[in-house]
Amino acid sequence: MRVTQSNKHTEGGSGSSTAAGVSGKETRTTEGETRRQVMHLLLTLGPVTASTLGDHLGLSAAGVRRHLDILVEDGLTETVQRRPQGQSRGRPAKHFRLTDRGRAYFGHSYDCLASDALDALREAGGSDAVRAFARQRVRKLLDTITPASSLADADEEVDEQAVEHTAQQLADVLNAHGYVSTVRPSESGIQVCQHHCPIAHVAAEHPELCEAEHEVITSLLSQHVQPLATIAEGHGICTTNIPLTQAHTITKGAGHDSGTI
């Protein structure tokens, strides 16, 4: 990546930044600065030709195209064919515009929007409504995971192997959704660790999101879990301890009831 994303965030974790601050780590090269200027112009002008960009930057069209080619390669810009206004014949001119990925470099307010929506839900239905939403969200996120209780025979208790298998499935699904999750051994069993939380800023204001996650994980594992740390509370990693020594004490189906979580 030759243009780095802004690390500036507004209070509350919205991720907003000014258009001029495309790079949180400012590149000192002239080429890096030129590409940031190109992206800023594409943001403000919309789809434009290399010649138009060159006029604004005081560069030749060929010089601008070299930067545009790099931005296209990096997935930050794309080309579209457009005829000049009033022209019905001839080859359409190649215009350039930012991709969704390119626009993301200028920040967004998705966290603020999500938090505002949960605030409105709380005002309308109270904390129970927020909890119900949080549980529904986690169930949908983890609905492809096989509960540990389903891995045991009908007349058998849930064993450690079943819990470990479901825990690894849990980590895999969380990884697919951007949580960067791993499973590691602990003194009393295993731990599911999330090294990134895509909703950390929202969860910091609405702890029901983390609580629902732990409830559903308990249900899937048929095993009591111990939340040790969360990124939303300021820790570096979300850590959930699963004490395998207790796995044999919970029989099949005792912890998995989709109607109560």
From TrEMBL:
Matches recorded under InterPro entries: ArsR-like_HTH (IPR011991), Carb_Metab_HTH_regulators (IPR050313), WH-like_DNA-bd_sf (IPR036388), WH_DNA-bd_sf (IPR036390)
Annotated spans, Disordered: 1-35
Any Pfam family matching the protein: HTH_20
Positions with biased composition (Basic and acidic residues): 25-35
Alphabetized PANTHER family for the sequence: HTH-TYPE TRANSCRIPTIONAL REGULATOR SRLR-RELATED, TRANSCRIPTIONAL REGULATORY PROTEIN-RELATED
Protein name: Transcriptional regulator
